[in-house]
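dumping these here so i dont lose them again. two proteins, back to back, each one seq then structure tokens. dont judge the mess
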Amino acid sequence: MTYIIAAVILLIALVVFGSFSRKRIYKQIDRLESWKMEIMNRPLTEEISKVKGLTMVGETEEKFESWRNDWDEMVTVELPNMDEALFDAEESADKYKFNKSKGILRRIESQLQGMETRIKAISTEIDELVTSEELNREDIIEAKEQFSEGKKYFLTHSRSLGKTASLFEAEFSEVNTMFAQFDEMTSQGNHLEARKILVNSIERLKDLREKMESVPELLVLLLSDLPSSLTDLKDGFSDMEEQGYILNHIGIDKEISSMNERIAALLEKVYELEIDETQKGIDQLNTEIDQLYDLLENEVISKQFVFKEKEVILQSLADLQLDMEKIRAEADMVSLSYQLDQSDVEVHKRLEKMFNKLQTRFALIEHSIEEKKDSYSVIREMMEEMAVQLEDLKKSNQEYQEKLVNLRKDELETKEKLKELRRRLLEARRMMQKSNLPGLPDHYLMTIEKAENYIIEVSKRLDDKPLEIAEITEVLENALEAVEEGYKETAEIIETAMLAEKVIQYGNRYRSSYSSVSVRLIEAEIAFRNFQYEEALNLAANAIESVQPGILKELEVNVKQKI
């Protein structure tokens, strides 16, 4: 039973598929049939008949026959054969030979597409032929008018055309020959070929007119204007030489000789009617002439600059010389008190050397100006470079001078710090005197002595000649540290001693009640009289803290408020 159901389903599927495939093929057959009929009804015969209005000879007759035969072949043979092919495709589809039917339809569609291409080509050629004939009839009139006007212009301006007149005359003769060829081609029905000749002749006439209008101006430029410009340039050059300008670097004779040769070569190009190349050459010559004038103008401007800048540089050198003398004197003075680093010495030597070089260079510049050895533009470049070097030297001088000042500044700052250290140490002594302590512990006296020794050493080193600032700075740092340590220790000893005394006095109230407190307070008093203030404080504090805890902090607050 399962097999029967499967077979029925398969049969139904095949029937549905066959029905769907036939419908698709029928639809395609209808489309191709419509396309075939549309091609058959094309008015190509009417289009071809347009050519009958032309002279039916030569190329026109050949194309007419070719187009008509091609169209007849399509209508009487190829399209009818398609009917039979379409019938075969339909019959194959009815018999479920779908692949065969599709193959036939593909061939028919390819044939129809080929026909479309051929019909389009025929229509295009017909339009070209008919349009060419119409345009030829209109354009030949305009072309002959242009020829007549061009010929008239030539005859009127032939004298200004110089040697090129014969070339233009030959050109007009060739164009006239082209008109004759055009007439011949037209009479033979070769309208497309005639069109090419006519278009070419019109372009030739246009080119001839443009060249005839350009040649006289080019000849004037090459025969008159440019040679005149070169003469003026040469005269200007000579005048400037007489005025003392050095212009050897320009090489004017060589330049003018080269330009004259190029003018002659450009004239030959004009005589060959190579107008564009000639114009480019003239433009280049004008550019180069302008450049030569720019060089001469630059010499004039450079001369003005040189004589003005000469005074500026002279003043700058004089100012720098004064600065160098001041720096030299200051360096000599500083060297009496300071040991200058070797690098500083080398810097000073280098600055002196640079200044001497600049003086020598300026002397050479002055000699070059007086003896006229170099052009002003070259001297100007030398001066501009020297101005930069002068500015650099001036800046370096300032930096070196500031460094010398800073050396003395270090000495003054050291002396000021030394004065402050002495004041600080004196203040510590006064604090100690005011405290009325019975004596001072040995470690404190050693600290104060160390600070005093450092101060003495700094003072002695400041008297050395030359000064060693680096070493003095090191000793000064030690002195600063020692004085600060002594001042801090002074304050600590005074505070400790006052607190110890205060604690002992406070503890006296417990002597009679506590024998242990009395013993410790006696020990504290002994330590106090032996200048052992810290030990005295510890002994007294332990004694009273044993009977009245926390009292030490209260006493510390009271003592600090009194200090």
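---- next one ----
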Amino acid sequence: MAEKGRRQNILLITCDQWHGDCLSAVSHPVVRTPNVDALAAEGVLFREHYGGAAPCSPARACLYTGLYQMNNRVCRNGTPLDARHGNIALWARSLGYDPTLFGYTDVSPDPRALAPGDPRLKSYEGVLPGFTVRQLLPEHQKPWLSWLKARGIDSGAGFPDIHRPASEIGGRIESAVTSAPPVYSKDETPAAFLTGEFVRWLGEQERDTPWFAHLSFLSPHPPFIVPEPYNMMYDPADGTAFRRAASWQAEAESHPYLAYDLDQQQRAKFRPGAEGKVRDWGDDDFRRIRSLYYGMISEVDAQLGRIWQAVKAAGAWDDTIIVLTSDHAEMMGDHYMLGKGGFFDGSFHIPLIIRDPRRRNAAGASVDRFSEAVDIAPTLLDLLGEETPPHLDGQSLKPFLDAGEPDNWREAAHWEFDFRSVADGDAERHFGIGPRQCNLAVIRTEKFKYVHFGGGLPPLLFDLEKDRDELTNVAGDPAYLPVRLELAERLLAWRAEHLDQSLALAELTEDGVAGHVAGLPPFQS
């Protein structure tokens, strides 16, 4: 049953690669995010929220579809999203919204619906079906570069060189990481550009017509660079100790997958023009990168403040549900790594704040129960008064927003990571296994984390009460055998329960279809 009154506006914001600990709202010792904190004060902060997969396309597929990777099957950037799956934009459109995109969704289209020569088959940066595009900002960032040029900024370096320090463009690249700023200012970042486009669009909306907007910011995703004053806002010497072994060699010796991953990470992916491997950067470089990452978070936070002001100025603040989250997180130098992937919490623990202006009883509350990216779509449908399709893997978070707690809530977080490389087969050759075996699945409770690998790679078990930094694998310790077996069984039960339910919840009877058929309206199911 739909909730009484005017249907709410929806503002879904994702900030790419934002680590869940990096908010002052969760008492980070260094990072300050006053505008995120202001949203948390009016909403509910989920402290134990986890992405469902990595990198961007798989993570977003979980968020947009409400399905785990085992069901949406988006394994890598470039894996097509099966056209049979519903998603958050299509569901909103069926309710009368015109979901509007600012940024990107990184969804590869289903090639079965396109001609072989269609140019959309040459990029993984497609648009999620159901969205109207107001301002697309793919990886090449050409719309932003054109905007910079119109403002008199020389953008001739293009992407990614535009994100090098201004002093390095066209000249020598410093071997050490520097805090030098780029050619663009704090008012000319990609986040500032997208925010301006959203504010302009918001001013065009009829006050009596509900709207749905998705702002998808790239920051704080690398390249790691940020304009003044954010480049010097945080001292590299500040911050907690890195979570890692005594050397990258020790990390590599601890598991075959870590040895492979550490060998793969190239510096140029994170600092354009840099040579060598990430693992060989020293502590000073990792600390400076981390300080720049914190600065990028503060720069995004400033743009979020502009958005809050614009929504209030439009008279829409009390009619707008806001969801602020990320797709996946960032390693920030832990385990001698940058970026995302693998199994560490550092890659998958992400922020989530939900503010529903109709629900003030829980304002300012924080939730310590495990939530997952697949919960976002069911939650928004529930908040709009619609039934959640029962084949979805996520659960509505609405009871937490009503200052309660749902029955039988999950006691663990789960995520998956697929490291196949279909186009070049690198991982397959390295491990001597097939693409179907290049995967891992994680179950993480408050006390333990169990990681199961395909292809015969050894499992991992971490005692998080004794080993918060995930350094000691106790999977082979006889004392932990009961824990390992229990978590392996729970992981198997989780997979069995959540295998694709699109048609499994339906049955043909003499009276016709009983149950639920995914993709059909409820009255036909």
